[in-house]
């Protein structure tokens, strides 16, 4: 039998064998999980179909129909054990109703994802979160967080009716800098009381210490580069608070944090940073850098005048330290959807 371990350690052929077996095992695990998920979704969809067809077929008396789900939960739990709680059966029924045969649920998401999606009454909003969960590979907690912060409505605010419908149908498409901007950005994950305003340094530290959550809020494509990034111009040092690189747009993204209202000098300073990065940091293949000033308050008219004639790559966005009022955002988006013939409502 050939020796697989030499004086210098395992032979390369043996290491290759380990890698092959490990890769095959991991691939098999993934395929097995996918197969279980596909079968589970199909089974739950069919169970929902049986319930709805039973209801629609006149097989249930009115007084019994009110208790149908509860009775099923009790009897199926006795027969099969866990998995048939009342709430689970309610969602199985909803799965069939909201995903008819021509729109079967995606097998790329788990049942736990669909439980969260089925809580959304509006078809447009639900389709957006479904698509975005697939594209950005959101975990269930990440999906819940994006729902809670009204991501769909925040992205829809700057769009017209057609763009909102496209956002729902295909998720967020990143083709230009303005496509990924959010106004406001929501930093509720920092858990800072609304009345307790941190300093700019404290806010930067908190964002850096919660970088994973911050990246989730920024969206797909961002990679962290550095903080307090130093630039030297004529022997004078300047620092930008946070620097990222966007893999899809292929450009640097600079963030400057302000706790007070943005002044024209802040905009000029960011423009300086953009000029420096464009000439000193960009390499072949990089697109012009993007600058975003994040502020608690902003004067739209001052910003319009202060950015007159400047690069379209410079933006000023608000941030807030608490969850947005979703009802207000829904109303604003509904106004846009009603702006053309054929109203579409996004309910609470």
Tell me what the structure shows.
The protein is α/β, with parallel strands linked by helices and 348 residues long. The chain folds into three domains: 107 residues, no CATH class; 84 residues, no CATH class; 139 residues, Trna Endonuclease, Chain: A, domain 1. The chain is 51% helix and 14% strand. It is built from 14 helices and eight strands. The protein has a six-stranded mixed sheet, with helices on both faces. It has a two-stranded antiparallel ribbon with strand order 1-2.
Name the average pLDDT: 87
Distance between the termini: 71 Å
Strand order of the largest sheet: 3-8-7-6-5-4
CATH class of the largest domain: Alpha Beta
Any low-confidence stretches, pLDDT <50, length ≥5?
Answer: 341-348
What's the Cα radius of gyration? 26 Å
Strand % is 5-15%
CATH A-level architecture of the largest domain: 3-Layer(aba) Sandwich
The CATH topology label of the largest domain is Trna Endonuclease, Chain: A, domain 1
Tally of DSSP β-strands:
8
Please give the share of residues in helix.
Answer: 40-55%
Secondary-structure element order, as H and E? EEHHHHHHHHHEHHEEEHEHEH
List the helices and strands and how they pair.
Layout: E1 5-6, E2 9-10, H1 12-56, H2 62-65, H3 68-80, H4 86-98, H5 111-118, H6 123-135, H7 140-148, H8 151-156, H9 161-170, E3 185-186, H10 200-209, H11 211-218, E4 222-233, E5 236-246, E6 251-258, H12 264-281, E7 290-295, H13 300-306, E8 314-320, H14 326-337
Parallel strand pairs: 3-8, 6-7, 7-8
Antiparallel strand pairs: 1-2, 4-5, 5-6
Helix pairs in contact: 1-4, 5-6, 6-9, 10-11
